[in-house]
Amino acid sequence: MMTNRTGWLVVAAIVLASACNAREPVPERRDEAGDRVDRLRSLPYAATAGPADPERSGVTRAEVEGEGDDGHLFLYSSRRPPVAELIDRQGTVLRSWHDRRARYLVRARPLADGGLLWLGTEKLGPKVQAEDRARYLLRFDADGRVVWRVRRPFHHDVAVLPDGTLLALVFRYVDAPHISPADPVRDDLLVRLDGSGREIGSRSLLESLTSSPELFTPLEVAAKTIRGERYVDLIHANTVRWIDSGASRRSRGVFPEGSVLVTSRHQNAVFAIDWDSGRLLWAWGPGQLDGPHDAQVVERGRLLIFDNGLVRGWSRVIELDLRSRRIVWEYRADPLESFYTRSRGTCQRLAGGHTLVTESGKGRVFEVTPDGRVVWEYFNPHVDEASGERGTIGRMVMLDRELSARLAAGLREAR
Question: Per-residue DSSP letters for 345-358?
């Protein structure tokens, strides 16, 4: 792997050029391309989505009857103001969750017992700058009571495994001279927790990605400075998916049961890692993806991915055939730039073939048909008191009928 700045710029320009087609402009100079990637990766995540527009609040489009109206509800996470809400197809709020300590809500994850996982950042004093002290994970029970709270540098995502254990992303800083001789490297850990939030195992993504050069050679990432701390954010993992027996079957055996699917924003890639050994099993994306999020296995041996288009300036959702490694379906807007979120963003394949898409940076969620028609649209109705701007949305998911009923059965306000 190259270790000098000039070499990385050449690699970045090659990656950008191969990722573009005739509709995607390529920067004219390689050094400009590399500098632009650096700047975009270093920008902080937005908590709000611009001035609140009363005509863009709640459900704004319902042209045809959407999928799963019979008992299916939606759960979404508003980053700021931090609130998780359960809504129906008409946007009626059936239940809300709050945490008085929260500054931001990163993501809410429903639990089979009617409880909820809340991944967020706390309000700390102005003298406290270390982001690892602000981050936490808590668990609500079915009645909305906080069962436990664990403070640790959790970030982006947490998954629930079939046995009830949890899998979360945690970061740490390590010395890795083979990657960055001068600056520490931020490593992403896959941390497994029991039902009480206690750690029972972990795997280093940095070790996984750098130990199998025959499968993947990491792209070099420039160092950035955040709150006075300089480091290399090599991976920036943002989504974890546990491959259970069902997901393995849907992948047609490409991903074995007991592996973990990870999406990496800064490597423009999706990885499969064996949990037991930490070994890298599969990788795809550089030259095709541009700051991606939320890869997940869907039917017929395919992978659904939210491709942000960090550099190209417009987003898309793609479906990849795992065997041929070819993109077999994609959604892109017309005009292209009308659908774009630089950071975050999620997607979910619904039972009848529609796709639910969270355009996080605009606080918008929409449902699109296989032929590209938007048939349902929702804007975050919550407005940040300090800025007067609409909050962004970390993720919205449609729940199945059983889980919808369990979450709706609890107290209306959970704090």
Answer: -EEEE-TTS-EEEE
Beta-sheet strands, E only, within 154-223: 154-160, 166-174, 185-193, 199-204
Give pLDDT, residue 8.
38
Domain ranges of the chain: 5-414
Q: Is pLDDT above 70 for 91?
A: yes
Strands in 146-151's sheet, in edge-to-edge order, are 102-110, 116-122, 135-140, 146-151
For residue 5, what is the enclosing H or E element?
A: helix 5-19
Helix (H/G/I), strand (E/B), else coil: 96: strand
Instruction: Tell me if 239 sits within 8 A of 262, measured CB to CB.
Output: yes
Q: Amino acid identity, residue 409?
A: A
CA dihedral 243, 246, 249, 254 (to 10 degrees): -10
* Residues in CB range of 105: below 8 A, 6 or more apart: 77, 78, 79, 80, 82, 83, 84, 99, 118, 119, 120, 394
Cα gap 41→27, rounded to integer Å: 17
From 351, 341, 379, 88, select the one nearest 238 (Cα to Cα).
341
Contact indicator for 347, 366 with CB cutoff of 8 Å: no
| Alpha-carbon span 84 to 116, nearest angstrom | 9
Rounded to whole angstroms, the Cα distance separating 220 from 12 reads 8
User: What is the C-alpha to C-alpha distance for residues 380 and 285, in angstroms, rounded to an integer?
Assistant: 31
232-289 tens-digit pLDDT: 999 999 999 999 999 999 999 999 999 999 999 999 999 999 999 999 999 999 999 9
Q: Which helix (DSSP H) or strand (DSSP E) does residue 59 occupy?
A: strand 58-62
Give dist(CA 38, CA 41) in Å, integer.
5
Residues shown for the chain: 415
Model pLDDT, residue 38: 63
Whole-angstrom Cα Rg for the chain: 20
Q: In whole angstroms, what is the distance from residue 85 CA to residue 73 CA?
A: 10
This prediction's pTM:
0.88
Which superfamily does CATH assign the domain made up of 5-414 to? TolB, C-terminal domain (2.120.10.30)
Q: Beta strand 185-193 with 199-204: parallel, antiparallel or unpaired?
A: antiparallel
**DSSP reduced 3-state for 320:** strand
Q: Is the pLDDT of residue 44 over 70?
A: no
16 pLDDT exceeds 60? Answer: no
Per-residue pLDDT tens digits for 188-218: 999 999 999 999 999 999 999 988 999 999 9
Helix, coil or strand: residue 56: coil
